[in-house]
Amino acid sequence: MQIVERIKEVFSLDTRSMALFRILLGSIALYDLAVRSMYLRYFYTDHGVMPRDAVLETFWKKYYFSLHMMSGEPLMISLLFIIAAIAALCYLIGYKTKIANVILWVLLMSIMARNQLVCNSGDVVFRLMLFFSIFLPVHARWSVDKLLNLKEPKIPKLFLSAASLFLILQVAIIYPASVVAKTGLSWQNGTSVFLALNIDQHATPIGQWLLNFPSLLKILGFFTLYIEKFAWLLLFVPIKAQWFRLLAVALFASMHAGFLFGLYLGLFGVICITAWLALLPPLFWDKLLPKFPGYKTLQNIATKIQIKASTTVQKLITREYLNRRIVHFFPGTIPNIIVAFFGSFIMLWNFASMDLIAFPSQAVPIVRYPRLEQGWAMFSPDPYRDDGWYVTRGLMADGSYYDFFQQRPADFAKPKNVANAFGNQRRRRYMRNLWQKRNKPHRGYYTKCHCRDWNREHKGTPKEVQLIELFYVREMTQINGTQPVIDTLNLWNQACHKKYKALTQERANERKAKRTHQKKRKAEELEQVDGGTEDKTFQD
């Protein structure tokens, strides 16, 4: 009996922690929708850099699902964003929570599939957390649904189900899967954090300041690696389980908070902290929280809010603005079977990513269709060293040059703050992905969009853009502390006027000739190093 109780303690979730989890996830969803809406036309319509034809041509898979692909017009996309925001708000306050949860999960998957170039690892964690939330009683406390059903039996503090078990496993497995991918030298010699903070696109002012303390950064590099390697095991210690779980939450929440101070990583850190807070044990709420300064004041405020909310809800019920309904906090057998089925394949998927097993190919659709696939290779095998910034140089009719990326007269000087030049997290991710070779076709969509938008207002004027040249000024970080190596690369040339089409082809030929020359030069260098040995690769 004692063994059963200990297992229950290890794999159970506190309903107060789940309520906090719901409130934070709902808040993050609202914030994320607001950030995405800043570039709604630019990223999610046919009038921007990612028309639906581009999605179907380069990214679309048979198992993807996106309501946002139904239309390329801003009005329809705006309507879907508004529906998602309403669902997020209902989820946050706990009204019709399960319905809101499902709608929010579906619409966020839809948004992510519409434009994958703006997505990052935070989006993966987000959709996974919303999926498990569907099967958890996240509305059991601090929710409108609870106030609508005051006569429901009191919910126990600890909740055990397949969903609680697999949520804990999911949160835990991110870190060993990440460690397996961190095979680079920088993670072994402690220079990983130094390299990460040298990425100007991501480094915050605090992160840049920390570069003055290389010894501290080395310690932080080893600390990060060993926390990810071993600290997740604290979740499964059966003796003093609550204390060990609390320690694990504190360690990982602190680690992600450190990432947030030093690096702009989008929502990844915030969502991971939220996932860990869902694991807070009763020990935190019953013994530690009451000892915090100002707890009694906060408790009194919370009690007043609860009384006010209860009174308001009852008035709304009387006036028939809200429908009273029975809330089933405990999932039955079928929901447990569903989450156990998908959760098992999620675990197999992660084991396969760590090369522990081979994932059965017949089971791939089971994970792919509900978008439960995942990979945890951030900053792996090493943090990347090819940092840099863009110059989107437009040639105007009057002969002047304008940089559409930084929205100023064009020059190749390094921006004072590279991270700010990239804009918000979604634009930063898009521009980083645009640099990658596999996304080369999207450079054309990017430059065409700027041609079209600019000339809509400036056609026939001296400021009409004739030609856009997309440059990436690459800055290679040197581990030995010497100055970074800077190289300016011409990625794309786009004619905005008919007379410049021949010139863009000429520039393309120049780039091709330059690459051929570089290959030939490398071959000659290899031949000299090898003492005249023939390099058949380049001869062929």
Q: What is the distance, rounded to the nearest whole angstrom, between the alpha carbons of the first and last residues?
A: 73 Å
Which word captures the global form? Answer: globular
Give a short account of the largest sheet: 5 strands, antiparallel
Number of helices: 24
Care to count the β-strands? 7
- Proportion of residues in extended strands: 5-15%
Mean pLDDT rating: 87
Structural class: alpha+beta
- The main sheet orders its strands as 5-4-3-6-7
Percent in helix = 55-70%
Low-confidence stretches: 529-540
Radius of gyration of CA atoms, rounded to a whole number: 27 Å
What does this structure look like?
The protein has about 550 residues and is of the alpha+beta class. The chain has 24 helices and seven strands. It has a five-stranded antiparallel beta sheet with strand order 5-4-3-6-7. A two-stranded antiparallel ribbon has the order 1-2. Helix 14 runs antiparallel to helix 15. The longest helix is centred in the last third of the chain and has 29 residues. The radius of gyration is 27 Å and the shape is globular. It starts with a helix and ends with a helix.
